[in-house]
Amino acid sequence: MTAPASVFVALPNRGTVAAGTAMALLRTGATPIHSVTPRSTSLLTLTFNALWCAALNQSPRPSHFVMLHDDVIPCDPGWVDVLVAELGRSRADVLSACVPIKDDRGLTSTALMNPATGEMVRLTVREALGLPRTFDAAAAGRPGWAVLPNTGLWACRFAGEAWVEKVCFTARDRVFRDPADGQWKAQCYSEDWDFGAALHAMGRRACATTAVRAVHRGEFEYPNFAPWGALAADDQVNHWRPPQREYPR
Question: What is the CATH number of domain 7-171+191-234?
Answer without folding.
Answer: 3.90.550.40
